[in-house]
Amino acid sequence: MNPTVIFWPMLAHVLLVFIVYLVLAIRRRDMVVTGAAKAQAYKQRVTEPEGSMNVANNLMNQFEAPVLFHVACLALHATAGVSYVVLVLAWIFVISRYVHAYVHLTSNKLKHRNYAFRSGLLVLALIWIWFALHLSGLV
Prior knowledge:
By secondary structure, this protein is mostly helical. The chain has helices at about 5-35, 50-60, 65-80, 85-105, 110-135. The relative contact order is 0.15.
């Protein structure tokens, strides 16, 4: 297997980050244009209007657990630990992030969002376990 395939799920997550940035820009612009918020409201995070707050929060989420995902992928690539198992896990993690973001930016139903988040976190833990097993020579 070509170990560079691990970069595709990473790129898919990067695409998600840019999508969320775009949604945030659109929501903020629309809030100002419609008069629901003044541009000054975006000067400090504590004054972020509710109409764009969940998007801003989701954007922050994309730089929390996913950082561990990117580090794990790079570490697996650097140590020749990329396998079909890791690749599938990586794609499942990225899909969970897309689901989490979709729920967060639309209905924002905590139950669904929490399920997507926990699923992704479990998969991320499995990736790190796989990496540890790879380093120990067990897989």
